Amino acid sequence: MMEELALHILDIMENSLAAGASLLELTILEDPVANRMIIELTDNGRGMSEKERQAALDPFFTSRTTRRVGLGLSLLRATAEQCGGSLTLVSQPGKGTRVVVTLELNHIDRPPLGDMGATIASILSREDPPEVYYYHQRGKEAFEFSTSWLKEQLGDIPVNLAPVLKWVQSHIDEGLKALYGGE
Asked: Could you give the domains of the chain?
């Protein structure tokens, strides 16, 4: 099991980019009253056939040539199920993919969210960074970040420059810190 949910999210985002996605939409909803956390990632990649979708949940399948086993989605599904939740994978060829993970928010085995600032900055650090929209709601409070907003602020400055990535990480970290009331 991965120690942070952010590492699972990074793995799914990397899979999306490997499948040709140029847009990643990440939503994290935490509902303390319902004791529920929902993580949803939607991409505009090439999508999967039903056979590929089933295989993607098999821990012994990978489309990578550098590694013989693809544990990402199966590990995340195991984590979700261990924490009273589930993983749903919806995909169609040419229509992208959507992964929805639900977990009990205060389950003793639920890994911490982890470093979302580093996760988003890592995704944006590639040569051709994707469009990213990240929305995180905790109770009635919310934080959002988008590369379209960032690009408006930056003008001609690329989002994948080291100082920009450092700022992105800090901005997301501060936004989430405020969301959690400084916890």
From this structure: 5-179 (3.30.565.10)
